[in-house]
Amino acid sequence: MGLLAVGTPAAATPVSAAPDNTTLTAAVSGKLLATAGSAHAATTPRTRVTVDRSAAGWAFGTAVALAPPKADAHPTGAVFVARAERDGWRIAFDGEADFAPLAAASPLVTSREKTLFNTAPAPLYAGGDYRTGMALPFAVGQTWTLSGGPHGWGGSESPYSSVDLAGGDQTVRAARAGAAYTMCQGWIRVIHDRGYATDYYHLWNNISANGASVGQGAFLGYTGTDVTCGGAASGRHVHFGLRQNNAYVPIAGHDIGKWAFANGATAYQGGARHGSAWTGAGGAIHNYGALGLTQGVVDANGGGTLTRRAGPGTGYAALGSLADGATVTISCSANGTTHTGRYGTTALWNRLSDGSWVSDAYLWTGVNGPVNGWC
User: Fold this and answer.
1) CA angle (156 as vertex; 152, 158 as ends), nearest 5
2) What's residue 36's pLDDT?
3) Which of 148, 157, 150 is nearest to 67 (CA)?
4) Helices and strands counted in the chain (H then E)
5) Cβ(45)–Cβ(64) under 8 Å?
6) Which of 340, 352, 180, 325 is nearest to 258 (CA)?
7) CA 82, CA 90: separation in Å to the nearest integer?
8) Which terminus of the chain, N or C, has less C-beta within 10 A?
9) Over the stretch 205-240, which tens digit does the pLDDT of each residue have?
10) Whole-number pLDDT of residue 296
C-alpha cells in the first residue's frame, strides 16, 4: 500500500482489519524522510517507527529518523496518527494541517489530546505574535548557564530554533503544559497549545510518555549527554528546541522565561534579554517563570525606571515608576504620545491592571501591537 498525500478526504472508508505494521512502518518512514528533506540529504538514515496505540484500521505513535553519531547532527521525528484506507495509509504528523482532523476522528486519541491538537496560534509568529507562555525548561527561580546560544536543532543550520542549557539542579522540566511523548531514549517532545511544541534532547533517565498530560514545570528527565538517536554532546546539558506547527522555528524574538532570545553572528552565539539586562552564550540565565499572554516586561532601554502615568501620554500626571525588568499585566491599550524604545518608535500606550498607563515603547510583550484589545 502506498503513502497517501495529506488532505485525503475524511469520508474515505476505513479498513476494518488490524493495522499491517509492515506497510505502516514503510509509509510512515517514507513520509518522515520526505519531510526531513535537506536535514538528512547527505545520508540515508535509519528510521525507528514505534506504534504506541493501535486498533482496527488505526495507529498512533512516534517516528524518528536517526542521525549519524557526530557533531552538527541531530535526529528528526514526529508524533503521527494513521488510518488505513482502501488506497493505503493516510498519515499526518503533529503540527500538520491534517493532524487535528485525523486525530479528532481517531478512537486512539484521548479527548484531552484532541482539544490540545485543535488549538492553533492566531496569528502565527510571522504575523508579529511571538508569545509562547513558556518558562525556561528548569525550575522557576533557578539560575542555569546558557551554554549555547541560538542554533539549529541539528547544529549550525537554519533556523536557529534551539539553545543549550546546563547547571542548576540538572533537572529538566516542561516549559509549558501539554502532552508529552518519548521520541526515543534521551528525547522528549511536549506538544503545547497555540500550535507550539518543545523538544528536549540529551536527557538521562527521562520519563517514558505516550501522551501523558504534563503541567508547566513537570519533571521530564535530567541533563545528560545521551545520543541514542544520533548527534553528539559534550558536557551534560539539555538541547532545547522550539517548534510551531510542523517545523522548528527561530527562537529569536520569542519570550521564554521572561527572556527575549536573539541570534548572534553565528550559531551558538547570541543570547537573551530580560528588560535591559543581557546574557550571552556562557552567561547566567535566571528562570523568572512564564510571561502571561497579556503581560509585559519593562525594558527601560538602558536600565533605570519607567514612569507610570494617569493617562496615555506624558502630559498626564506621574503616578510612580516601575523598575527595569518588572512584570506588568495589561488591561487594554490606546494611542497617545510617541516614544522610541529598544525595538522602535510607537504611539501605543498600555493601561495596566492598577489603572496606570505606560508607553509600549518600554515594554516587551512579544506582540507588535495591543495584547489585550483597545480601551
Assistant:
1) 50
2) 74
3) 157
4) 3, 27
5) no
6) 325
7) 6
8) C
9) 999 999 999 999 999 999 999 999 999 999 999 999
10) 98
- What residues are paired with 219 via a beta bridge? 173
Q: How, if at all, do strands 2-3 and 88-93 pair?
A: parallel
Q: How far is 303 from 299, CA to CA, in rounded Å?
A: 7
Going by C-alpha positions, the residue among 124, 121, 142 that lies closest to residue 238 is 142
Alpha helix stretches (DSSP H) within the chain = 21-36, 99-105, 111-117
For residue 131, the tally of other CB atoms under 10 A from its CB is: 20
Nearest to 96 by CA among 73, 76, 80, 77: 80
- What pLDDT sits at residue 205? 98
- Determine if the peptide bond prior to 123 is cis (ω within 30°): yes
The pLDDT tens digits of the residues spanning 60-113 come to 999 999 998 888 889 999 999 999 999 999 999 999 999 999 999 999 999 999
Which residue is listed with cell 500606550? 349
**CA distances (Å), origin 26, targets 2, 29, 40:** 9, 5, 17
ω into 312 cis (within 30 of 0): no
Please, which residues have CB within 8 angstroms of residue 109's CB and are 6 or more apart in sequence? 60, 81, 103, 117
The torsion angles phi and psi of 194, rounded to 5 degrees, stand at 60, 25
> Residue 60: what are its φ and ψ, rounded to 5°?
-145, 135
Residues 6+ apart with CB under 8 A from 204: 186, 221, 222, 223, 224, 225, 226, 236
Question: Which among 316, 292, 318 is positioned nearest to 306, based on CA atoms?
Answer: 318
Look at the alpha carbons of 90, 93, 33, 204 in this order and tell me if their dihedral is positive or negative: negative
Could you give the C-alpha distances from 91 to 6, 17, 78, 101, 221, in angstroms and in order?
7, 17, 11, 11, 30
Low-confidence ranges of the chain (pLDDT < 70): 1-20, 37-44, 122
Nearest to 249 by CA among 150, 123, 147, 145: 150
Contact in structure between 333 and 346 (CB atoms under 8 Å): no
